Amino acid sequence: MTLQPKGTGQLASSDGARHSRIHGVGGYRPERVITNEEVCTWIDSSDEWIRQRSGVVTRRWAAEHESVVDMAEAAARPALEMAGISAAQLSAIVVATVTHPFQTPAAAPLLATRLGADGVPAFDVSAACAGYCYGISLASDMVRGGSAEYVLVIGVEKLSSITDKHDRGTSFILADGAGAAVVGPSDTPGIGPTVWGSDGTNWETISQRVGWDEILRRWDQEETTGQPQDWSDLEVAGAREASTLKMAGQTVFRWAVWSMAPVCQQALDKAGITAADLDAFIPHQANMRIIDAMLKQLKLPDDIPVARDIAETGNTSAASIPLATERMLREGEVPRGGLALQVGFGAGLVFAAQVVVLP
Ligand SMILES: CC(C)(COP(=O)(O)OP(=O)(O)OC[C@H]1O[C@@H](n2cnc3c(N)ncnc32)[C@H](O)[C@@H]1OP(=O)(O)O)[C@@H](O)C(=O)NCCC(=O)NCCS
To answer: Whose CA is nearest to atom 36 of ligand 1?
Structure first.
């Protein structure tokens, strides 16, 4: 006998908004400025080499006590203000980060409580430098699918906590900060289709492996009690070096330069616009040379403003696109309501691009 379902099998479905858009953005840059001169006290390099090879002039590093959640909160408040909504009106929080020092729980539920948005669904996304664009895509689909009305998307990193200061390949690029966006309903399309994907064949080109065996060995040698509690404890016994970020710089460079321009073009095509329609190009602030190479490939008209926040902010991974967006709007470099192409790419390797209407 074949089993039959009990009912008709018909369920009610949720109805979302017809369209979504970004209602507000906000940013937080830690106070401490790290100059190239300071970096050169850790590595054998020069201000000239760092500027030429990466475009970074200064970067911000968080204070020792400043956490990913602290920075996320500081970026979220101005984003909510620009959006004109209160935290209580949020229906979900998505935090893109790879530097929250707990494997679990996620940073997002704590952020929800801090903001006064207790009880909302809240989770983290691990998509490295593409995390913000992944978050915008998820939030847009949540708003349109009816599972949320207003979603707070945060890109936040404390990369200094996983950086080996003495590594010539990473220490001059990586930095800390947070950027936020509030995504909500819209009468007209405000977030174009996302072009996203991954390349697991290059899985190891940017990676942070937690060397727990080495950490516990060193921990045991110290006059410590108990077990290390989270990754912040890796400072103890100098064990942090066992768990810092490693990057195959040239491989990542080539991948980004050759693969990301076609992804950007697809995002333009899917949004039904051409490069000439753009008011801004806001790529992940990985490296100024990558940005320049992508511009050449994309054949972007010369008069379109391009985010170059990396010069003063460094590479803040998931935070870099919302931070650059916030700066361009604040400094009047791009019009509110204008069209921006944003593209994130990084460890995974993963990438995501979409055209958005600026808040
Ligand atoms: C990191 C990066 C700047 C290194 O540049 P590179 O040209 O690949 O550097 P290499 O490791 O091949 O070394 C080239 C030369 O520079 C030297 N060098 C490397 N790091 C240096 C540093 N920090 N300062 C001075 N010289 C350095 C090397 O010793 C080498 O010298 P040699 O030719 O005399 O042997 C580059 O690979 C890069 O930008 N990659 C992408 C990184 C990135 O954006 N990541 C984020 C993606 S999300």
So the answer is: 249
| Tens digits of pLDDT across the chain (359 residues) | 889 888 877 888 889 999 999 999 999 999 999 999 999 999 999 999 999 999 999 999 999 999 999 999 999 999 999 999 999 999 999 999 999 988 889 999 999 999 999 899 999 999 999 999 999 999 999 999 999 999 999 999 999 999 989 999 999 999 999 999 999 999 999 999 999 999 999 999 999 876 666 667 766 776 666 666 666 666 665 566 667 899 999 999 999 999 999 999 999 999 999 999 999 999 999 999 999 999 999 989 999 999 999 999 999 999 999 999 999 999 999 999 999 999 999 999 999 999 999 99
Active site residue 40: no
- Expressed in angstroms and rounded, the spacing between residue 249 Cα and the centre of ligand 1 is 7
Residue nearest to atom 37 of ligand 1 (CA): 249
Q: Could you tell me where the DSSP H helices lie in the chain? A: 36-39, 47-54, 68-83, 107-115, 131-145, 212-221, 249-271, 288-298, 310-313, 320-330
All structural domains of the chain: 19-186 (3.40.47.10), 195-204+247-357 (3.40.47.10), 209-243 (no CATH)
Using the 8-state DSSP alphabet, how is residue 174 labeled?
B
Residues 94, 132: Cα–Cα separation, whole Å: 9
